[in-house]
Amino acid sequence: MHTERESVCCRDVEQxxxxxxxxxxxxxxxxxxxxxxxxxxxxxxxxxxETAYYQYRQQYGVPQQEDNEQxxxxxxxxxxxxxxxxxxxxxxxxxxxxxxxxxRAQFPSQQYEGFQDL
Length: 118
Known about the structure:
Blueprint: H1 14-25, H2 37-44, H3 46-60, H4 67-84, H5 97-106
């Protein structure tokens, strides 16, 4: 990640740590939010992201974006809604670097080409 502020472990973020603890209390043993089955469904599934984008576009009237850029942006929004439970234009949180890297790897951009293998 570009800055120390952005280099955050999911275990150091209260909301993602809570998601992991609840899941692990059900008899699982995972250490990273990207290993949670909900992460893939909510943040990486193209069909879920497509539907979430339609809602976002309807609510905010944003123009159509390039496919991977659109998927990446919506995946970040989905992650925040899933972990924090709410979302808004003024809601800004630092995402765990593991989640950002996983989303970037799934929906690459030329801008982030050098970061995909991190």
